[in-house]
Amino acid sequence: MAVIGVQDHFTGQAINALVSLKPGNDVVETPHTEFKAQMRKEIGPFATPKAIFIVDDLPKTRSGKIMRRIL
């Protein structure tokens, strides 16, 4: 998972999450509403992402770190 800030007309900046699922997990089994509910429970409503995007893979460096500048 990677979390990035994006421009928002209302608040100035909003949180978006990019989620890469493990092989065998299906988006249908875990809909976006369940992701948001779990995040709201764990980190609170103020830090819950405005949008959640399911991606196949996140770009990584040779050392395995996420390349945030590409997102």
UniProtKB/TrEMBL annotation:
<dbReference type="GO" id="GO:0003987">
    <property type="term" value="F:acetate-CoA ligase activity"/>
</dbReference>
<dbReference type="GO" id="GO:0006085">
    <property type="term" value="P:acetyl-CoA biosynthetic process"/>
</dbReference>
<protein>
    <recommendedName>
        <fullName>AMP-binding enzyme C-terminal domain-containing protein</fullName>
    </recommendedName>
</protein>
<dbReference type="InterPro" id="IPR045851">
    <property type="entry name" value="AMP-bd_C_sf"/>
</dbReference>
<dbReference type="InterPro" id="IPR025110">
    <property type="entry name" value="AMP-bd_C"/>
</dbReference>
<dbReference type="Pfam" id="PF13193">
    <property type="entry name" value="AMP-binding_C"/>
</dbReference>
<feature type="domain" description="AMP-binding enzyme C-terminal">
    <location>
        <begin position="2"/>
        <end position="65"/>
    </location>
</feature>
<dbReference type="GO" id="GO:0005829">
    <property type="term" value="C:cytosol"/>
</dbReference>
